[in-house]
Specification:
Blueprint: H1 8-24, H2 28-44, H3 48-64, H4 68-84, H5 88-105, H6 108-124, H7 128-144, H8 148-164, H9 168-184, H10 188-201, H11 225-244, H12 254-259
Length: 260
């Protein structure tokens, strides 16, 4: 309809929506095609908001398939356009995506910088849901860096905000990361509690991370049913190991497990 009516911007927005449907079904090649066409149409119309939207979608796809260099390039260009336009909401969303791309690449320092800036912008705008997302991301970075106490502090903050704003996705992500952190600290019983809570908080439908979390884009962190089940199993095993004294999680004496 938009094409026949000569509505170029309407057509571009429709192409983004089509790309989102493909991405949600993991049809990434088709999604890329739709987003690239939308990007060209937004550029031809000099719509910078639309251009940054398409760039972030393209970056999200490349991040999903493991092409961190391309993801970073797209997100950086989107960020440049949003800073020029003084679009603080857009900047915060893109910083989350940029941080995720850095995290996937293993650059935890730059990832943390991006997430911290995103969190500051969201707090300025009293964006409780967005702040919960950024705190989950910061907790994940701390967890990856082995800073367990720091990770727990950030994730507890994220959980409180997610529950305050009734954001099931962020709540589930925070609980999963909390369970992982507790497990690494040897706190099996508490890890089980968090994993069980994550099971109840998990959104009914799995989502592609970059399609959600803000007006334009979204960070990582979805708690799939399989992942939650595996985490619960590991946590229960660690809990049994802690209670069993001589017998570990697999029914093997700890000293034999270490030696073998």
């Amino acid at each position: 309809i938009c094409r026949h009516g000569g509505d170029v911007l309407g057509e571009a927005r429709a192409l983004v929506a089509i790309g989102d449907v493909y991405a949600a079904r993991y049809l990434y090649r088709r999604a890329l095609g739709a987003y690239r066409t939308a990007y060209r149409k937004f550029r031809a119309s000099d719509d910078k908001v639309g251009v940054s939207l398409a760039l972030n979608r393209l970056g999200g796809i490349h991040a999903q398939v493991g092409n961190a260099a391309r993801a970073l390039g797209h997100h950086r260009e989107a960020l440049r356009l949003e800073r020029e336009a003084d679009d603080r909401e857009g900047v915060g969303a893109t910083l989350d995506l940029l941080g995720d791309a850095y995290r996937r690449r293993g650059d935890l320092e730059r990832a943390e910088e991006s997430f911290r800036e995103a969190l500051a912008l969201k707090r300025e705008r009293a964006d409780v849901r967005g702040s919960a997302d950024s705190l989950v991301s910061l907790g994940s970075v701390a967890l990856a860096a082995g800073r367990l106490d720091d990770a727990l502090e950030r994730l507890e903050q994220a959980l409180a905000l997610a529950r305050r704003s009734a954001t099931a996705r962020a709540e589930a992500a925070a609980l999963v990361r909390l369970a992982q952190a507790r497990l690494r600290k040897g706190e099996g019983a508490r890890a089980v509690e968090h994993a069980e809570e994550a099971r109840g908080a998990r959104p009914a439908r799995a989502r592609v991370p970059f399609l959600h979390a803000s007006r334009r884009s979204a960070p990582r962190g979805r708690a799939g049913a399989r992942g939650v089940r595996e985490l619960r199993g590991r946590a229960r095993g660690r809990e049994r190991c802690g209670r069993g004294g001589e017998i570990g999680a697999r029914g093997v004496p700890p000293q034999v497990a270490r030696e073998g």
